Amino acid sequence: MIALDTLRRRWPSLVGTGLTLAVAVAVLTVCGLLLVSARPVLPARYAAASVLVRPVPPGDPEAFAEPRPWPVERADALVAGLSRLDGVRAAIPVHRFYAQLVRDGAPLGDARDAAGWSATALGGYRLVSGRAPSAAEVAVSSGLGLAPGETVTLLTAAGPQPVTVSGTVDGPGLWVADDVARAWTGGVPVIGLLTRDGAAAATVASAANPLVGGDGVVLHGDGRAVLEPVGDTRIRWIGMQVLTGLSALGAFVSVFIVASTFAFATRRRHRELALLRLLGAVPGQVRRMIHGEVLLLGLAGGALGMPIGLLAAAPFGDWLVRTGFEPPTFTLTYPWWLPLAAVAVGVLVAQAGAGAAARRAARVSPLDALREAALDDRPMGWGRWLAGCAALAIAVLSGVAASGADGANLGSYALYAAMALVTAAALLAPAVLPPAVRLLTAPFAGSRGATALLVRQHTRTAARRTASTAAPVLLSVAFAMLVGGMVQTTTAFYGLSKVTAAGAAAVVVPDGTPGLSDAAVTAARGRSALPTTLYDGPEPLPAVGIGTAEHALFTVATGDLSALARTPLDATPPAHELPAAVTSGFAERTGWVLGSGHPVSGPDGRERTLSVVAVVSGGPAPAEILLDRAAVRAMEPSALTPVVYTERLAASGPLAGLGARPLTAAAYAEAGSADDDRLVWVFTALLIGVSAGFGLLAVVNTMVMSTAARAGDLRVLRLSGATRRQVLGMLAAETSAVVVVGAGLGLGVALAALAAMARGLSTQLGVAVPMVVPWGTLAATVGVCLVLAVAAALPPAARRRSFSAE
Amino acid sequence: MTSTATVRLSAVRKTYGTGASAVTALDGVSAEFAPGTFTAVMGASGSGKSTLLQCAAGLDTVDGGQVVIAGTDLAGLSERARTLLRRDRIGFVFQAYNLVGALTAAQNVALPQRLARRAPDPAEVARALAEVGLSGRAGHYPAQLSGGEQQRVALARALITRPAVLFADEPTGALDSTASAVVLAALRRLVGAYGQTVVMVTHDPVAAAAADRVLVLADGRLVDEIAGADPAQIAARLVQGAVAA
Ligand SMILES: Nc1ncnc2c1ncn2[C@@H]1O[C@H](COP(=O)(O)OP(=O)(O)OP(=O)(O)O)[C@@H](O)[C@H]1O
Ligand SMILES: [Mg+2]
Q1: Alpha-carbon distance A621 to A554, whole Å?
Q2: Nearby residues of A552 by Cβ (< 8 Å), 6 or more positions away
Q3: Across residues A187-212, what is the average pLDDT?
Q4: Cα–Cα distances in Å, from B210 out to B178, B216, B227?
């Protein structure tokens, strides 16, 4: 293989590229392993139920909403039917609601919900001591160290209440009397079947199917894992975004680096390639030779990167669980094919990167072997212009999309925007960078001294080479700035906007609890919204309940908000009329008008007619459907309030023991209003870390290559009387100049994009959005680029033996 | 009409550029190179010698006339077909830059065979290197060889494929007289021992004297043909021609 023979001599110039591919394969291996390992896990509390029945889930799994539960009556009918089936020992409906133990104001244990006592059978849990709970009693996990008879505080959606421990159980969780649990929950989210010995789960499941009909889904075996908590599904989804984002970034940057390395190398080897053509290599052979080299390089990179990835996967997985990108049930698996697939992708990525260079190499004319041919600095073709401008357009569009997104989507859009921007920069660089370099080095024109003169002349005359070394610096700086700035601008804005929109100076937020109980809301004395979920068929419709105190926050376009409060609450049979206000955006989208009625199901599964009594406009609303707070509470007894907006910082005295704490608006905006923000932060840090890491590899790579390519120049300099120190000083100064040029351009690109994004946000939301520029990130990135570039440029020059005077 | 010539050019024209800046490098050149003959091409700088070689070797297309190599008319051949013809029937040696820097001498010699997907025979490679007096240098890289040694490696490479014709463009241009003599002797032996056809461009009457005949070019035209002359005679004829022109 000719490729192998020539590689043997040329490997020093390709070390950087090989390392890049190794890092890419390591990243792909880690992300791939974590992606295939991230699967839903059946909660232990259902482990003993070999068949489980649940209502039909929403069509869109990314809605992350619990399926619409069965109303209690429907569940009772199902339970009666299911328990009569052959092989079924018992059918147990699960009533689960928010509850947690507190002691001295601090959470006790991990349980954040409680179920009826009968549900212990579904987990196969048994009493360790004491007896089953009756009213005002609770059974707890034996691991908590509580003894029967002790009094503890149980925090529910209503507030804290003292209860007596009736007994301890050999599993995690809290249990109350069945009718207590039933009173806390609106509908039934799942029915578990305990089968008799010898009855096959599959047989029971198929017998249950006709009975349940279109009203539910019968699960058995591994299929039961879909019953994992919705929160876990959502976390896994976020984790998936992060991992695919990282993989895409790794692959993308590798293509970029391989492409530039091989473009450079092909230009340097022009005559050698011509000679091969002259000696009878057909164009296809030359192309295959380049691809062969890249294959070897990719395999070498893979051989290095794969074990690193395998070793790094477990600690990285643990870290993801700790940061909240994977649920605690996450366990790492090692399918044998995955590392191989990662190497294969690495090789493909390398081939894709080298494609252009290989095509260019195949076009080399054999005659060029006979000529002192100058390098072909062809002007940019129109195809390249077109592709560059298209990438630029995609970058702008993604930036606009990012400014409208939140959560993990924001990170993804920011990433796509940055990727498109970098592609555009790479494509347009030959046209844009040389004039930019000339412009930026103009200030040095007046300086004296040989070093300044040489630096200026070199960067100016070799504008193209300067451009190719400045490109990776541009990549690192623009990427870090853009991703960082984009996320900071957006989250800072959202955090603040919610508080200011509520006309508040401070907030009360949950402290060690998933949300605020009614007692905490009352004690906070502010404005809040109680979230719930309505259902249009199986599809969730997020809604919030508000009281009259909150009405003033909304601008009513048509109708009257006070009609919300006229919800008939105590009507039996259940109230059919549910007054609601909708946002003007929602009204436009769905065509719902004032006075119209729409069939929906409540969070308790009961059918109701939603009647539109008002349309509100302006400002960010907490949800698109507004209901009366009392109506929400009636339909969903264990709903929790996420935050209360207060006029001044609430006193902490009344909040004591309620799992709540006051914060100033500024502190709230900074800390992030939700866990989501923290996740976005970590996501951002990861993206910046990986992209900057790759960018720095590219900086080192191009510096090593370009110094090697200039050996001749440097030798002439040395022979014409420059001391070794002068040559090295000149190289260092020149490298710094190039880094500064690249950083300047990257800063320009990022600032332009950030400004456009801030303006987009402002017009979209009608509020002035300040642009946040991450100066710290910029300083760090440029600093590291500078140090690495100089460190990479000098050794090849210093080592060159031809420097020693002869 | 058939011809026994390995390479035949008839009324070949070659023009570089267009319009006012057009240069006619070959202006109706006809020549035949018979099997087993050694031809030198001479002429002033810019007279079209290199162009003639490139056209005869099928490296460049002609604007008029015909080039036939080993019975194959080059007109109408695809780039690929011309490459394959070059690979199988033609060898090259130039003034400089003959070798792939990343390959050893032996690997360079075996290169044409590997490009043709034939397994190179190490013994054959060693014999070819021995023939040009480089037995001990098989593992050296071009950067570790002198200019004359590099030329001889290129010769060995041309030798190993047994091409129908070997083209050499100023192969001794960068060498001193001793090194030139070694290279010329190797070329001569190729013709004598293997019946190789060789076409060599040179400025050096001494080198030209190693050939069977000398073609002289001036302004893209064939102006003289000298057979079996010694260096002094050749030099004299060239001066004559220059004076006449
Ligand atoms: N690629 C080219 N483009 C334009 N003109 C060319 C090109 N190659 C050669 N020429 C011109 O064609 C003419 C013949 O060139 P050629 O290289 O054949 O001369 P030569 O006889 O080999 O000269 P020398 O002895 O200097 O090598 C010259 O006038 C030269 O300038
Ligand atoms: Mg010439």
Answers
A1: 8
A2: none
A3: 89
A4: 14, 15, 11
Of residues A668 and A501, which shows the higher confidence score?
A668
User: Is 90 exceeded by the pLDDT of residue A584?
Assistant: no
Within A365-406, residue ranges assigned H as helices are: 382-404
Whether residue B94 and residue A9 make contact (CB cut-off 8 A), yes or no, is no
Residue A66's alpha-carbon distances to A54, A607, B147, in angstroms, are: 10, 17, 81
Q: Where in the sequence is the domain holding B110, given as residue range(s)?
A: 7-244
| Cβ neighbour number for residue A153 with a 10 Å cutoff | 17
Residue B209 lies in a domain: yes
- Whether A9 sits inside 8 A of B59 (CB atoms) is no
pTM for the model: 0.73
- Report residue A353 CA to chain centroid gap: 27
Q: What is the pLDDT of residue A768?
A: 63
Complex prediction ipTM: 0.84
H or E element, residue A609: strand A607-617
**Given a cut of 90, is residue A506 above it in pLDDT?**
no
Number of domains in chain B: 1
The 10s digit of each residue's pLDDT in B39-67 is: 999 988 889 998 999 898 888 888 888 99
CA geometry: angle A484, A485, A491, nearest 5 deg: 90
What is the rounded distance in angstroms from the CA atom of residue A342 to the CA atom of residue A27? 9
Residue range B125-163, pLDDT digits in tens: 998 888 888 888 888 888 888 888 888 898 888 878 788
Average pLDDT over residues A401-416: 64
Q: Minimal CA–CA distance to A707: which of A462, A403, A447, A407?
A: A462
Q: Rounded to an integer, what distance in angstroms lies between the CA atom of residue A110 and that of residue A144?
A: 10
The angle formed by the CA atoms of residues A384, A386 and A390, to the nearest 5 degrees, is 115
- Confirm whether B156 is domain-assigned: yes
Q: How far apart are CA A375 and CA A373, in angstroms?
A: 6
Which residue has tokens 């199917």? A209
Residue B1 covered by a domain: no
Predicted local confidence at residue B96, as pLDDT: 74
Closest Cα of chain A to B104: distance in Å?
9
Query: Which among B14, B23, B172 is the best mutation to test ligand 1's pocket, defined by most ligand atoms within 8 Å of the CB?
Result: B23
Which alpha helices (DSSP H) does A111-229 contain, by range?
Answer: 120-123, 178-184, 201-212
Report if residue B2 sits inside a domain. Answer: no
First CA to last CA across chain A, in angstroms? Answer: 39
Here the tokens at position B23 are 């240069």
- pLDDT score for A338: 92
Cβ separation of B97 and A369 shorter than 8 Å? yes
State whether the beta carbon of B194 lies less than 6 angstroms from ligand 1. Answer: no
Residue A232 pLDDT > 50, yes or no? yes
> Quick check: A534 and A610 in contact, CB under 8 A?
yes
- Residue A463 predicted with pLDDT over 70: no
Q: At what angle do helices A450-461 and A407-441 cross, to 10 degrees?
A: 120
Cα–ligand 2 centroid distance for B52 (angstroms):
9
Predicted confidence (pLDDT) per residue in A787-804, tens digit: 888 888 777 666 554 433
Taking the C-alpha atoms of residue A278 and residue A585, their distance in angstroms, rounded to an integer, is: 69
The domain locations on chain A are 1-41+235-375, 42-88+191-227, 96-184, 506-671
- The greatest distance separating any two alpha carbons of chain A, rounded to the nearest whole angstrom, comes to 106
Q: Are A85 and A622 in contact (CB under 8 A)?
A: no
Least confident of A421-425, A495-499, A678-682, A780-784: A495-499
Classified as helix, coil or strand, B215 is strand
Q: At B71, which CATH number?
A: 3.40.50.300
In SS3 terms, A270-281 reads as: HHHHHHHHHCCC
Give the residue, A402 or A146, on which the prediction is more confident: A146
Ligand 1 pocket check for B187: Cβ under 6 Å = no
pLDDT of residue A760: 65
- Written as one letter, the residue type at B147 is G
Q: Which of A741, A769, A775 is nearest to A755 (CA)?
A: A769
